Amino acid sequence: MQTHQQTRQTIVRLLSSMASAKEISQYLKRFSQLDAKRFAVVKVGGAVLRDDLDALTSSLAFLQEVGLTPIVVHGAGPQLDAQLSQAGIEKRTVDGLRVTSPDALAVVRRVFQASNLRLVEALQRAGARATSITGGVFEAGFLDRDTFGLVGRIERVDLSPIEASLQAGSIPVIASLGETPGGQILNVNADFAANALVEAVQPYKIIFLTGTGGLLDAEGALIDSINLSTEYEQLMQQPWLNGGMRLKLEQIKTLLDGLPLASSVSITRPADLAKELFTHTGSGTLVRR
Ligand code: X2W
User: Fold this and answer.
1) What is the C-alpha to C-alpha distance for residues 136 and 193, in angstroms, rounded to an integer?
2) Whose CA is nearest to atom 14 of ligand 1?
3) What's the pTM?
4) 264-268 vs 205-209, strand pairing mode
5) Quick one: average pLDDT of 50-68?
6) Could you report the predicted ipTM of this complex, rounded to two decimals?
7) Which of 138, 187, 207 to mutate to test the pocket of ligand 1 (most atoms within 8 A of CB)?
8) Mean pLDDT score, 132-158
9) Under 8 Å between Cβ of 208 and 267
10) 224 Cα: distance to centroid of ligand 1 (angstroms)
11) How remote is the CA of residue 118 from the centroid of ligand 1, in Å?
12) Which of 131, 126, 132 lies closest to 56, judged by CA?
């Protein structure tokens, strides 16, 4: 685990190796003119929490240091797979979503709490201020109870816990659990949660942090940009586009369709986040409408 000092050193080294000070300061100046409370929504996949926590906390702590406190929402897919299997609960998914029984939900809640705390504590150790938010944001209804069980579709987003955190200069770290008005907790796919947050916050930057660092083509090479208006139909027909990526691309399309034309989504890895935000060349996959 990195200390605050190590975090700063890592970031300084990273930035100086990839961009000129002039380039970075241009971006910092541009970003400082934006409303800092809606700079970015960053979705962190469970695989990133598991495999890349140091780079993740360094990158998020850096954004906070330069006054661009991100809004973070995270999943816990691989952690859930592991803990559910340990509890003897068989995995079943339909259309990429986990069918969630009452027994499974108990594990889901515990794993989300633990993953959330792990990230918050890692951020604090890296010198960042971070607030754990594991409820009170996503009001949800049942997606389709017969098919999925205790899985939610977000119907309303309450931004007040997020605003309170940002007001205090603290990174809101939000778990993708929903709750019905009647108080039933529901399992929500973290990409869905990120999309609902984006619609509510209307951030300048939408960032998905994944283990792969972007969308990969048939040969496993990074696709550095996708223009949905000309490439979407063709991409969706590719046999190599796997279920997870297909779902992600579909959701990004739905998301961007509801946002201003200039909006874009970046899919990158934690170590490349600063490069994506502060350099002309960027990193990962940039998806535009
Ligand atoms: C997801 C929630 C976790 C998630 C699940 O149970 O796996 C549903 O499928 P990642 O790591 O971002 O994939 N929920 C309903 O989305 O985590």
Assistant:
1) 13
2) 189
3) 0.89
4) parallel
5) 93
6) 0.99
7) 187
8) 98
9) yes
10) 25
11) 17
12) 126
